[in-house]
Design brief:
By secondary structure, the chain is α+β, with helices and mostly antiparallel strands. 20% of the residues lie in helices and 41% in strands. A four-stranded mixed β-sheet has the order 7-4-9-8, with helices on both faces. Strands 1-2-3 form a three-stranded antiparallel β-sheet, with no helix packed on it. The two termini are 37 Å apart.
Length: 198
């Protein structure tokens, strides 16, 4: 931070919007799900070039049952060659669909569950140096089985679903046994939310 900018009060720390002049923005690659942009940006006294994935945005669900267990799913993720543990999640790829409605849809599609109470938990940029994805994580409680099961294919066909005590999930994240970033921020935020309420 520049010495000319005062440090904000600690309870007011926040990211700051900044809109440098975009000199040129090209579609470098058109993908099946996401595109790659190639931007030239006026920055300071010069010009920088940045390539990044243009993302639709996404939602994730921290579903918590009456026993304090969190719903985790495990599925194959090709870029990391792992079946990693995750929160149910999905893309904001339906035109006009609000994040909360997308979260309701994804919980039903990925875990055949519905929830009676929903609240925003945390939102985060997943990899701001490489994409513009903003994911909204919702806390869902009052969970029950959906009326209909969803057909799944490809990686979703062998999804493993487990209910895990929240403190065990937190320990697995902090011990480095579960490394999914959205899972990590979700279980840590949920644990803090519950501490704040107790």
């Amino acid at each position: 931070m520049s010495s000319t900018q005062p440090m904000p009060e600690l309870d007011d720390l926040r990211d700051e919007p900044f809109e440098p002049e975009i000199l040129r923005s090209d579609l470098a690659y058109e993908g099946a799900v996401w595109n790659v942009r190639d931007d030239r940006v006026r920055y300071g006294d010069g010009e920088i070039r940045r390539q990044y994935v243009a993302h639709t945005g996404a939602v994730a669900i921290l579903a918590l049952d009456d026993e304090g267990r969190v719903l985790l799913i495990q599925q194959y993720r090709h870029p990391i060659r792992h079946r990693d543990w995750e929160l149910p999640a999905g893309l904001l790829d339906v035109a006009g669909e609000e994040p909360l409605e997308a979260a309701r849809r994804e919980l039903a599609e990925e875990a055949d569950l519905v929830a009676s109470h929903w609240e925003p938990l945390v939102s985060t940029w997943t990899t701001p140096g490489g994409n513009d994805e903003l994911i909204h994580v919702f806390l869902a409680t009052g969970v029950s089985a959906a009326q209909n099961a969803h057909a799944r294919e490809d990686e979703e066909a062998d999804i493993r679903v487990e209910w895990v005590p929240l403190d065990a999930a937190v320990s697995a994240v902090l011990d480095g046994r579960m490394r999914n970033g959205i899972l990590g921020i979700g279980v840590l935020a949920a644990a803090q939310r519950l501490r704040d309420r107790s």
